[in-house]
Amino acid sequence: MTVSYHDIVRAARLLEGIVSKTPLVKSQTLSNICEAEVYLKLENLQYTASFKERGAYIKLTSLSPEERAKGVIAVSAGNHAQGVAYNAKRLGIPATIVMPENTPFTKIKHTRSHGAEVVLKGSVLAESMAAAHEIREERGLTFVHPFDDPDIIAGQGTVGLEILNEGIDFDTIIVPIGGGGLAAGIATAVKSRRPDIDVIGVETRMYPSMHEGINGLPYSGSGVTIAEGIAVKQPGGLTLEICKKYLDDVLLVEESAIERAIQMLIEIEKTVVEGAGAAPLAALLDHPDRFRGRKVCIIVSGGNIDSRLLAQVLMRGMAREGRLVRIRIEIPDVPGALARISTLIGQSEANIIEVYHQRYFYDIPAKQTDVDMVLEVRDTSHAAQVVEFLRENGYGGRLLGNTSLD
What we know:
Layout: H1 5-15, E1 24-26, H2 28-34, E2 37-42, H3 52-61, H4 65-70, E3 72-75, H5 79-91, E4 95-99, H6 105-113, E5 117-120, H7 125-139, E6 142-144, H8 150-165, E7 172-176, H9 181-193, E8 198-204, H10 209-214, H11 237-246, E9 249-253, H12 255-268, H13 275-286, H14 288-291, E10 295-300, H15 307-320, E11 324-332, H16 337-347, E12 351-358, E13 368-376, H17 380-392, E14 396-399
Helix pairs in contact: 1-8, 3-5, 3-8, 5-6, 8-9, 9-11, 12-13, 12-15
């Protein structure tokens, strides 16, 4: 069994008026940074903030009346869960979703809001899958696979069809890979009409399952990644077969590049993206020579990121760029000293974020206090100017950690 171009065209007809034809926009700033002509296919603007709605709807509409009446069950870290739950509710189909216990709260909340029963089982997707099959057998439910299903793949492939129909002469399309449903669908659609366009998959280096599958290597994925949506230990049999046939390459990216891509997309494009959705931009950042001078479309596959994690990524990004620094200042332990320091920092146009006032545990004289501060500054040069200004006014100070300029 495989998926044809005609299956994807049929899926596109079924999805008319059901899912959004998401924008395909050029980013001039990212183009300048990456030295390539960069376009974004914004699937994070779907109602459930992910492309997963497409395949879920196609699969659910293929069920018999009896299957619809009994209900469906799915396993997902979040986006497939929401896609199935949302469309099941629209079609009047009972839905049960099994999710790993460490799934971000926002994805659990949104899945439940669509009326699905959520069962939290397992620390990894494989354990959740085993629990789902037990429930399926007990209740006689239809299993909706997150990626290894012809209807799912055909639905996801409509993303590629929409890109082609824009008529832009792309050299390359970069798509994130977890189990491979999106990559298999897009590659089938694109290569059937435009075999000259490179379709390149991207995975986090922590879960290189499609790269390993295509190259006949043992599966090695493990650990906690910011891109949990593509943290799949083993691709599907059908998706692997299709990706072997159509993908031009699979690139691996570092966690730090994914973090940076999330930050850049929200700061530059004002669009919220989860780790998996940022992976294609991370590929541009990690492999600049591969794409320099080319016209590139990156698939921004989803935007369901936990708010706390997003805040952490943004703050870590500021620290990485030298806009957030730690400084240790030596002050006499007398009234008004901390107020004086705060005034000097304000005069140097830095902003105090946090203050740690320590008298007892540092190796310092009894009448002296070390104060650690987290400051928001323009850049590392500005941070050095703040330290020098403090020294000129009689206070010893230095930058801490990897920001030290000593």
